[in-house]
Amino acid sequence: MALELRQSLKLSQQLVMTPQLQQAIKLLQLSRIELLETVQQELLENPFLEESAQEATPEQACQDAAPVGQERDAVTERDMLKSADWEDYIGDFASTTRQMNPRETEIPEDGLSFEARLTSSHSLEGHLEWQLRLSCATPRELEIGDAIIGNLGSSGYLQATAEELAAMTSATVDEVEAVLYKVQRLDPVGVAARTPQECLLLQLELYKMDTDPILVGLVREHLEDLEKKRYKPLARKFKISLEELREYLEVIQGLDPMPGASFGSGEPSYVSPDVFVYKLGDEWVVLLNEEGLPRLELSTAYGELPSRSEKERDYLQEKMRSAQWLMKSLYQRQRTLFKVAESVVKYQREFFEHGVTQLKPLILKDIAEDIGMHESTVSRITTSKYMATPHGTFELKFFFNSALELDDGTQVGSESVKALIKRHISAEDVKAPLSDERIAEILKETLHVNIARRTVAKYRMALDIPSSSKRREMF
After folding, report:
1. For residues 56 and 85, is the Cβ–Cβ distance under 8 A?
2. How many angstroms separate the CA atoms of 95 and 198, rounded?
3. How would you classify the pairing of strands 386-389 and 275-280?
4. Beta strands in 252-341 (DSSP E)
5. Average per-residue pLDDT in the chain?
6. Which parts of the sequence are annotated with region: Disordered (predicted)?
């Protein structure tokens, strides 16, 4: 069959992801801290954006969305700029009253965040290097010591062999071992150990407790038995009573198996609630957290220029469109978050009244149908967003959980079942802990829920609770 070229017309529809639409979608899934950073960056880059110092009406938000690609004379454009009072474009969702005005004068320190007033934490490497340089070490020893300290893990353990360190520093293994001996006796005690046994033995040595052969033997050879609580065989082997073994165990538990963990290098992660939920009378009130979020408006500074070239006019119009779209996207984000939070409170009212044990099954589709939006929009707006409730601060994703069938045909949320499992385990007898099978039986008797033993085990592991054999205490 011969091939030929021909032209044809085809009419079709497709969704085009414009840069503005991509920005709006991105704003939906940003956390509160990320949103503040994005807004501050836009304030720096866009000359048409500025922070508002006054209150205004939110009804003008839609009026400023008119096309700006058309030619306007100076009077029309100036009127448009002056009418774009957006500083109260999310005022209906504000958690603070409009009567709250900032103080005219502030102490300079009051303008700083709490984190900015704190000194930076010391790192493990810096702490050890400082001690090593105060120990009258030779330049050669300092070089080897720096190599040792540079190969420590986050828990303080040495992650390189003596041979590897010798090759790094062009030294002998004996020289490395000599410097390693000094580093291991710096603060924190037991740092630069290669195994947990070596770490604990170093601490016993420096605390003058290494003269007891039973204590040394337990640390050197039976840490695994102690971890698995094999107490009776150990008591028979060392010919001691369980009470004496308990005293040895208390000494070992007082040691630090991870001496470098207190010098964590990671920065702390702070959670700022996006939504507050309060009870006012018999109703639950949803308030958005607007603290720290700048109220934006369009700047009028560029509307007073006497004349502009075509290139300048195109640039200013593009920046104006960008500023208007950002303000509309922020308004839509806050409006969507408010609607989703209200819907969550409506569906999970029992949780807000009584706690986690009353959390109901909920999926994204339920909220999407309730507020008339797509599931993907609900998924994005609930990502990295937190709600402050009377029972604690929870991520919005927490309120969405799967369902378990009850005997009467109703359903219960999986998070409620997890809370009940945790409650039963916390109230158990430590000498006879509840097995997964027994917990499943208790839930069937009290909650009338059809749950298997393996499901209980899965939920227990999700709660980071060990098995019954590891929870059992012999003493």
Report:
1. yes
2. 56
3. parallel
4. 275-280, 283-288, 296-298
5. 79
6. 51-72
Q: What is the pLDDT of residues 189-229, one digit of tens each?
A: 889 999 999 999 999 998 888 888 999 999 999 888 888 88
Give the model's pLDDT for residue 67. Answer: 40
- Name the amino acid, one letter, at 315: Y
Q: At what angle do helices 162-169 and 139-150 cross, to 10 degrees?
A: 130
Contact between residue 421 and residue 463 where contact means Cβ atoms under 8 Å apart: yes
Distance of CA 458 to the CA centre of its chain: 23
pLDDT digits (tens, 9 = 90+) for 219-233: 999 888 888 888 888
> Does residue 397 lie within any of the structural domains?
no
Residue 255 lies in a domain: yes
Note whether residue 338 is domain-resident: no
232 and 142 belong to one structural domain: yes
Q: Is the same domain home to 24 and 78? A: yes
| Three-state DSSP state, 372 | coil
Q: Exposed, middle or buried, 110 (CB in 10 Å: 0-12/13-18/19+)? A: exposed
How far apart are alpha carbons 71 and 87 in whole angstroms?
Answer: 27
Q: Are residues 203 and 164 in the same domain?
A: yes
**pLDDT tops 50 at residue 98:** no
Range of the domain at 159: 124-263
Token couple for 192: 């630069």
β-pair partners for 288: 275
